[in-house]
């Protein structure tokens, strides 16, 4: 049976199709569109242009699933639609126009699903910090014995930090410091347990593209899925100038993240240092796999 998962993010919207057969899951199709929905907000609402972009992409993805005879479909949004005031108007509009239901994940559910995506296969240590830095929010899970003991969602992400704090393309020293201060404030406001953890596990595109950048700049070997925290300062030092030379370092790795990757790295670094992390581990799965596991579990599979 085929399962289609559509993840509506603040920056990108992604469709992944999985085949579930003989108790095994296989990814068979993936397509992504950069939407930048966070840039289409006016007075806390997603404006008409943003809604039309969202509708157009979801309609195309739904047609792809029709062509591939995808039996089970699940469209979900996190901070992209959660943190606006016209969420339910958009849900109703999409339902009427395309005929699909969008599920809005609250911040705790988002954090739990991110953890569920890797708890069985992606954690090489029984305790640590797991993060998922998205475009509009960042999930943090503190876990021990592979069980969450505290979790929460920061209302800041790589794209929202770019929009709120960066004047050109890369943040300067002052802008970087303001991002760090904001992240620390949001962590403290959450009241997360203060703890020291050796390992931080990252899921999602920000940490995966951080690894690609480290490989491209010859900081680590491509086969390595873990690296020391101090490399974050070194890679940020490579991206401190708003010039063509530094822009090309990201353009050659992931052009569409030219404006969001540096804010994302600053978020990761700030969280890591707050919890006295020594090593960062890159996980292959994402929240989409967590959503799939929950669907299979609900069906008794």
Q: What does this protein structure show overall?
A:
Helices cover 43% and strands 25% of the residues. The protein has a 6-stranded mixed sheet with strand order 10-9-8-11-13-12, with helices on both faces. InterPro entries: ATPase_NBD, GppA/Ppx_hydrolase, Ppx_GppA_N. It holds the Pfam family Ppx-GppA. This is Exopolyphosphatase GppA.
Question: Would you spell out the secondary-structure blueprint of this structure?
Answer:
Layout: E1 2-8, E2 12-21, E3 24-34, E4 41-42, E5 45-46, H1 48-67, E6 72-77, H2 79-82, H3 87-98, E7 102-104, H4 107-116, E8 128-133, E9 138-144, E10 147-154, H5 158-165, H6 173-190, E11 199-203, H7 205-216, E12 226-228, H8 230-237, H9 244-254, H10 261-274, E13 279-282, H11 287-298
Helix pairs in contact: 1-3, 4-11, 5-10, 6-10, 7-9, 7-10
The assigned structural class equals alpha/beta
The named CATH superfamily of the largest domain? Exopolyphosphatase. Domain 2
Q: Can you tell me the overall shape?
A: globular
Provide a count of the helices: 11
Please give the alpha-carbon distance between the first and last residues. Answer: 11 Å
Q: Remind me, CATH topology of the largest domain? A: Nucleotidyltransferase, domain 5
Number of strands: 13
Q: Could you spell the SSE succession in H and E letters?
A: EEEEEHEHHEHEEEHHEHEHHHEH
Tally the structural domains.
2
């Amino acid at each position: 049976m085929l399962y289609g998962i559509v993840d509506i993010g603040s920056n990108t919207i992604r469709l992944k199709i999985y085949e579930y057969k003989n108790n095994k899951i296989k990814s068979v199709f993936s397509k992504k569109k950069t939407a930048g929905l966070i840039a289409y907000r006016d007075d806390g609402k997603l404006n008409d242009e943003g809604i039309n972009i969202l509708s157009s992409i979801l309609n195309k993805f739904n047609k792809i699933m029709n062509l591939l005879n995808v039996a089970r479909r699940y469209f979900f949004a996190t901070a992209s639609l959660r943190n606006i005031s016209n969420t339910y108007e958009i849900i109703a509009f999409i339902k009427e126009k395309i005929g699909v239901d969008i599920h809005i994940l609250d911040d705790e559910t988002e954090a739990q699903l991110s953890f569920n995506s890797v708890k069985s296969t992606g954690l090489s240590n029984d305790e640590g910090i797991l993060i998922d830095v998205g475009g509009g929010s960042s999930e943090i899970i503190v876990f021990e014995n592979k069980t969450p003991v505290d979790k929460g969602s920061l209302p800041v992400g790589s794209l929202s930090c770019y929009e709120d704090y960066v004047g050109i393309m890369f943040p300067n020293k002052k802008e970087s410091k303001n991002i760090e201060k904001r992240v620390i404030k949001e962590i403290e406001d959450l009241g997360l347990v203060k703890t020291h953890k050796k390992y931080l596990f990252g899921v999602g595109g920000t940490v995966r593209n951080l690894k690609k950048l480290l490989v491209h700049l010859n900081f680590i070997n491509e086969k390595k899925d873990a690296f020391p925290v101090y490399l974050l300062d070194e890679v940020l030092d490579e991206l401190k100038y708003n010039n063509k030379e530094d822009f090309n370092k990201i353009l050659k790795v992931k052009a569409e993240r030219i404006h969001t990757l540096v804010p994302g790295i600053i978020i990761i670094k700030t969280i890591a240092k707050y919890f006295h992390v020594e090593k960062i581990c890159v996980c292959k799965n994402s929240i989409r796999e967590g959503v799939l596991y929950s669907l299979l579990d609900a069906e008794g599979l």
